[in-house]
């Protein structure tokens, strides 16, 4: 089975985005007991282009699942996003825009698109597994209205229309300890802990895909 994992470049004045390092940590990883082919993709923090590039990579790789990762500085746990909403929005007083200085306000991601689209990753199983392994985690009900939500919505919308059998969703990671060195009050997690979290998320996704395949095989034999 094939799993595509994406992350982002730094943005918003940060010199680090932990998801970039997470991609480097998992790109050559193999699981002894599960056959998974991984591909990683680092995305720009640009509205819409992030979606276009990830869709292009998915068309080339033909994954069975897409795990999108992003930074949510200020959160205290790994957040498994439940839903993406059809809006691009940066508050007028926000400290930063995207990396091309775009500041959309109340703009639909797709005109006449659904208001929201749910993740198709096994987010509850992922959350429980992370907690069982001593990693702070929670299901989140908002991916915001910035680039992460833009990416999640755009990819899920595309998959619903073109490849409904492909599972996909978004995971927000807190700031890394290295980022907190420059801002001691910033909640953070160590990179090794977040790397373990992503490994477990990939494993849980792979196991879900195996289960899906077994159910299809059972149904076909009836």
In brief, what are we looking at here?
The chain is of the alpha/beta class. It contains six helices and ten strands. It has helices at 18-26, 49-61, 123-132, 147-162, 177-180, 191-221, and strands at 2-8, 37-43, 65-71, 78-81, 83-85, 116-118, 137-140, 167-173, 175-176, 188-189.
Q: What is the beta-strand fraction? A: 15-25%
| Low-confidence spans | none
User: Helix proportion of residues, in percent?
Assistant: 25-40%
Query: What count of helical segments does DSSP give?
Result: 6
How would you characterize the largest beta sheet? 6 strands, mixed
How would you sum up the global shape? globular
Strands in their spatial order, largest beta sheet: 2-1-3-8-4-7
Instruction: Compute the number of strand runs.
Output: 10
Query: Structural class of the helix and strand makeup?
Result: alpha/beta
Distance between the termini: 24 Å
What is the helix/strand order? EHEHEEEEHEHEEHEH
How confident overall, as mean pLDDT? Answer: 95
Radius of gyration: 17 Å
Could you explain the architecture of this structure?
The chain is α/β, with parallel strands linked by helices and 222 residues long. Helix content is 37%, strand content 21%. It is built from six helices and ten strands, in the order βαβαββββαβαββαβα. It has helices spanning 18-26, 49-61, 123-132, 147-162, 177-180, 191-221; strands at 2-8, 37-43, 65-71, 78-81, 83-85, 116-118, 137-140, 167-173, 175-176, 188-189. A six-stranded mixed beta sheet has the order 2-1-3-8-4-7, with helices on both faces. It has a two-stranded antiparallel sheet with strand order 5-6. A two-stranded parallel sheet has the order 9-10. Helix 1 packs across helix 6 (191-221) and helix 3 crosses helix 6 (191-221). The longest helix is centred in the C-terminal third of the chain and has 31 residues, at 191-221. It is globular, with a radius of gyration of 17 Å. The two termini are 24 Å apart. The mean pLDDT is 95.
């Amino acid at each position: 089975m094939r799993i595509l994992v994406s992350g982002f470049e730094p943005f918003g004045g940060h010199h680090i985005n932990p998801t970039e390092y997470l991609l480097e940590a998992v790109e050559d990883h193999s699981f002894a007991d599960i056959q998974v082919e991984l591909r990683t993709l680092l995305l720009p923090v640009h509205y819409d282009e992030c979606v276009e590039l990830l869709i292009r990579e998915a068309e080339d790789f033909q994954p069975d699942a897409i795990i999108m990762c992003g930074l949510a500085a200020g959160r205290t746990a790994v957040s498994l996003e439940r839903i993406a909403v059809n809006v691009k929005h940066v508050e007028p007083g926000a400290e930063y825009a995207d990396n091309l200085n775009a500041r959309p306000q109340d703009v639909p991601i797709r005109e006449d698109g659904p208001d929201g689209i749910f993740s198709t990753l096994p987010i509850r199983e992922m959350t429980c597994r992370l907690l069982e392994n001593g990693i702070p985690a929670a299901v989140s009900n908002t991916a915001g209205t910035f680039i992460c939500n833009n990416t999640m919505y755009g990819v899920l919308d595309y998959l619903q229309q073109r490849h409904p059998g492909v599972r996909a969703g978004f995971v927000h990671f807190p700031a890394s300890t290295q980022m907190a060195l420059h801002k001691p009050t910033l909640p953070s997690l160590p990179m090794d802990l977040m790397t373990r979290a992503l490994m477990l998320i990939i494993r849980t996704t792979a196991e879900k895909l195996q289960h899906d395949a077994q159910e299809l095989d059972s149904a076909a034999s009836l």
